[in-house]
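Exercise 7.
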Amino acid sequence: MIKVFYFRNRNELKDFIEKLRKRFLEGEGEFIYRSFENRLLLFYEGDVEGGKEAYIFNSFEEIPEIIKKLEFKSFAVRSRRMNSNQDNRVLGEIIKERLNKNVDLENPDITLVVDEIGGIKFFFIK
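Solution. The predicted structure, written as tokens, is:
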């Protein structure tokens, strides 16, 4: 699976790149990056930790399959750039129906943060 890493600042990115440098030079993993709207996304296929691990999706229908392995009873959905309220409701209903989980907007076990940058849709979990 290709992972997307989202960085809030240059220091997070710098620390992450240092972790990757040796692996990449030895031919391990593969990465590309995209910059949109003053944000940097790094796509990496390989085993490494750092940044905020995010998951690419094409349709909300894919998300329950990705998160079903997580242990949680309640969740919330937050959108950044998409049609926020409508998208939050649609995705929330899909997760609620498919995984039999409760929506809790005040104190959820996990929060899915959905974003789209440069036509790439992804989400990460808080």
